[in-house]
Design goal:
heterodimer, A: 167 residues, mainly alpha, Rna Polymerase Sigma Factor, Chain: A, Arc Repressor Mutant, subunit A, 2 domains, 0% strand, globular, B: 178 residues, 7 helices
């Protein structure tokens, strides 16, 4: 680390799980999350010169969110037919994964996946990345009132999904 | 559904859902510590006086807690080795000064292989584990943390700084059931 600016290896080591968690909650599956993290780390490595010491996790969350939103826009512009699952690329689940917490996580993930991307991003930045409304608004380039609206409406959709899953 | 009058993802603040309450967005702001002092006072008065508002607060708090307390997904084994290889390959192809933006041909070139590389790393690790299983005595210690302690620690962490607990005297049991 020099002048408070970490190297990308330090970021991958110290904040890798955070990056992966945000990416997974946004993307909804392991393979897309891995792509998001890889693209984010490429941008991080190239953008470290522009990083100014401050909210490192906020900066990381912004980069991974931008990669996600770029991907969403790209898919909207060029809709593609889904390829058949490639089992060669599937990764085995972590050996120590706890079944109960994994089931809870999957249930929440399914509910998050059902949200429109703009709402999902707002909820994930608030509840996974733990950013404040002002920071989220700055990152997304929208007014704070819009952030407040997206977070609450996103949560209302979530609670309806989770209520349905529970009954 | 909520009205999206301009069709641009922005909303007019009104709500058609039978369970919806005008101005209900303040509930999330309150839970996140983002409500103004006046909003906070008004919401607490409404919650004290109205079952609908108590239910809106409780159910929103439950949805918020569900996302916050859900365990982070496990990173697949071998992933970091694979992504390090990909990022270093990108750096090597650009020189150590590294410039340009993601989405460039170089970035596209290194995309996707990460899952395959990680699978190879994982397969190698799995093979090593099988060999080790034959050669080494089996571990007798239980996996740590145990499920009960894990669940308990999550529950405790989720309840810390949760503003809804401060409304316990006027609150309703939190449940995701309708």
């Amino acid at each position: 680390m020099t002048d408070g600016v970490p190297t990308w290896e330090e970021i991958a080591r110290d904040h890798g799980r955070f990056l992966y968690a945000v990416a997974y909650r946004l993307a909804g599956n392991a393979e897309d999350a891995q792509d998001l993290v890889q693209d984010a780390l490429l941008r991080i490595r190239r953008g470290l010169e522009t990083y100014r010491p401050g909210s490192l996790q906020g900066w990381l969350a912004r980069i991974v969110t931008n990669v996600f939103l770029d991907d969403v826009r790209r898919r909207r512009r060029r809709p593609t037919v889904a390829l058949p699952p490639d089992h060669e690329h599937r990764l085995p689940p972590a050996a120590a994964a706890d079944a109960a917490s994994e089931a809870l996580s999957e249930e929440v993930q399914r509910a998050l996946d059902s949200l429109p991307p703009d709402f999902r991003v707002a909820v994930v930045l608030c509840d996974v990345a733990d950013l404040g409304y002002d920071e989220i608004a700055g990152q997304l380039g929208v007014p704070v009132g819009t952030v407040r609206s997206r977070i609450h409406r996103g949560r209302r959709m979530l609670r309806e999904m989770l209520s349905g899953a529970e009954t | 559904m909520t009205r999206d009058v301009a069709g641009d993802g922005r909303f007019d603040g009104r709500d058609d859902l039978p369970a919806g309450l005008a101005g209900e967005e303040v509930v999330s702001a309150y839970l996140d510590g983002e409500a103004t002092e006046a909003e906070r006072r008004e919401l607490e008065a409404r919650v004290a006086a109205s079952g609908d508002w108590r239910e809106a607060l409780a159910r929103t708090a439950a949805a918020r807690r569900a996302v916050r307390s859900a365990p982070w997904p496990e990173v697949p084994s071998g992933f970091w080795a694979a992504v390090t290889e990909a990022v270093e390959a990108d750096a090597g192809s650009r020189g150590r000064s590294g410039s340009g933006i993601a989405g460039s041909p170089t970035a596209a070139h290194v995309r996707r292989p990460v899952a395959r590389r990680a699978a190879v790393w994982a397969a190698g690790a799995a093979a090593a584990a099988v060999v080790a299983g034959f050669l080494l005595p089996r571990p007798s210690q239980p996996v740590s943390p145990s499920v009960p302690s894990y669940v308990e620690s999550h529950a405790a962490r989720a309840s810390i700084d949760d503003p809804i607990t401060q409304l316990a005297p006027v609150g309703v049991p939190v449940s995701l059931s309708p």
